What we know:
The complex is a heterodimer of chains A (about 290) and B (about 525). Chain A is α/β, with parallel strands linked by helices. Chain A has helices at about 40-50, 70-75, 95-105, 110-120, 135-145, 165-175, 190-195, 215-220, 230-240, 275-285; strands at about 5-10, 20-25, 30-35, 55-60, 65, 80, 150-155, 180-185, 200-205, 205-210, 225-230, 245-250, 255-260, 270. Chain A is built from ten helices and 14 strands. Chain B is an all-alpha fold and about 525 residues long. Chain B contains 24 helices and three strands.
Amino acid sequence: MSMLQIESVSKQFRGGNYGVRDVSLELKSGVIGLLGPNGAGKTTLMQMIATITRPTSGRISFQGVDVVLRPNDVRGKLGYLPQDFGVYENLTAREFLTYFAALKGVRGGTRVMEMLENVNLHQAAGRAIGGFSGGMKQRLGIAQALINDPALLIVDEPTAGLDPEERVRFRNLLSEIGFGKLVILSTHIVSDIESIATEIVVLKAGALLTIAAPEELLRLCEGKVWQSIVSSEEFDRLRGSLKISAAVRKGDGVHLRFVGPQPEIVADSVEPELEDAFLYLMNFGEAGA
Amino acid sequence: MKQRLQRVAAIVRVDFLVRFRRLSTVVVFLLLCAFAYVWIPAPSTGRTLIQINDHRAIYNSGAIGLGTASLGAFFVGLFGFYVISNAVRKDIVTRCGLVAASTPMRSGEYLLGKFLGNLSFLFTFLGGFMLSSMAMLLVRGEAPLEPFVFVRQYLLLTPAAIVFVSAVAVLFEAIPFLSGKLGDVVYFFFWVTCIGLAVGAQSSHPGIGWFRYFDFTGFGFMIDQLQHALHTDSVSIGASTFDPHKEPIVFPGLSLSHEWFWPRVVSTIAPVLLLPLATLCFHRFDPVRTKRVAERSQRNWIGRLQNLFRPLSRVVVGLLLRPGKGSLPSAMWNDAVLTIALYPLVLVLFAAITLGTFFAPLSRSLPIAFLGLALVLADVAARDQRADTVLLLRATRHLREDFLWWKLGSSVLLALALCSIPLVRSAVMGAWPFCALLIGIGFVAAIATSLGVMTGNAKAFIVIFLSFWYLVVNDAGTNRWFDFAGFYGKANVSTAALYATIGVGALLVAQMIYRGRMSRS
């Protein structure tokens, strides 16, 4: 059963530009990866779902409740971590979390400490946040988003600025939360979602390109990912015309991996990866694919 | 209902903690207490806190309570606004506001929390000041401490000012076009007008007697009470001289007469009515309304005017911009040119100053020119912090260690260019007027740069300079010490030396603080 319905939603800014244009989606519980290049409309779409900004047209409903008409009903079930989340530097982690717990109507220091333990910050609970690393602040951000045990969790570019170990820990945390809830995770880093997303929504220039399970996306570009070894001169000639996903200079030439229809050069078809699928969709996909 | 109250309480608590854990709060509090020490001079120095017809008032709870409460009301009413009017902006910058907006918290609860946060901060601040003033009474007093009399002076004068400034700060932050520099300037004149009307309603303009119900500053009430209690208009509050041969007077302090009861109650409660208006205007952190400051500035009338002159500024900037030679002077020059690119109205200001100098005497045109100059210079040293380009600049040659001197050079160049015609005219008048004006320009540039570097925003300089400018213009050369740039031809060598010393001192302090920050980072 779908938890979130988005029906022909658009957001038009002053001056006529569209942030999101005529997007329709139905999302079930699980971790949903929202993928798209910068400016694709990911943040705007998430802010509309999170009741921060209203759609210009269309309808969004969560568990049958209209997000625009009855925002407070949805806000009680919502956890939101915005992009580039900042903190009050001179509060302690416990004070900071207690504040957001109160705003969300959650009572009790036990829940606060429980959340701090979940994100492995319990030992720093009494320390001023100003002295935290970027990863610790981000974990505190996710703790505030989870403190009310939300049915809908929206996290916008949460892994930006995290080191590889923190990113893995973060992914695992989201993966654990995803059971029975809807987690929407936006990113432009494909590896962040390939192992945890149940479905991937791909946006481009405000429009929906596709929504599919990761394996479907891979199937979509089967036979469209190629590998070849070319000389440096040939590489310089080809780089403008091919959509290259990787190029490594080695002793025998430049090892190329690219996406697209059958190329004119000699190339072998290879197994696609999610990054290839994303690149393919961005360059050859059309809205509603 | 209980949850709503808990949410409001949480907002107030966090606001309070965030503010009181700032070093700057402690510094301002200590400065205010130190100012109280100067404000209450020892009578043996020939100066006194309250002087009535050349008699001095005995230092009892009524006199010291009134003197310090009036000082507190002045500080809270004017400077308090600039201290507290960043609560919502802070939530926009940190994006904590976005999270708050996604919770069941209502907009009205948020703004009420911010209002009560402002209120609790200012009440605590002033409470601390009152206690330190009571301690002053124990040190310099000539009568035993009467706590109730002392506290009464504060209760009669300051709550209206605190409620007023707290509510106006929330309202201004909720209205996008008043939430920035324009709001800072508007508030200053708004507050000065309120004082003028409150005082006028008591003395020169009885026709506006109804304004006593809106005497937020408490000054109208205070003047009326003093006139009635002392039967004279000749009262001075603040460190002033007295005749030691005249008998001291016992001043019992202010009390609330029947006719002033409702005016004081209404003055204290009325500002709360601004909160529903603020709620109506509040953006609730909708990024479409808050995200792009630049976009917003283009929408308001100043932004539109700027856009009107942008084509002209592009031509001028194109002519003036020099490719960087990597030297500090070249960086100063380009930063000054950047100001013209950012604020094309600088060109209009230049034209206005030039025309004003031709058609009006310098005593009339220079004060206005300096007002415009101050508004331009306020931003120069603070804009990089706001634009988040500080780290970028620190990686650039010269600009890390010499940031303050770079900004000072840029400000001086701008100021000299804007005041070039007044400088020529004063040079024609003689060497001394030219030097006095030059020192005045250097003083303004130095203070703007120092405060910009120290605080990272334009607010501190704007409010301090506007207050100073207001005193200078109202004094109109009566006191040569106020004639800092020779507006009225009263400045002498001592005046120039004083302002040069203050300017250099401020720069040295700012450089010390900046170096300290650099070594810690």
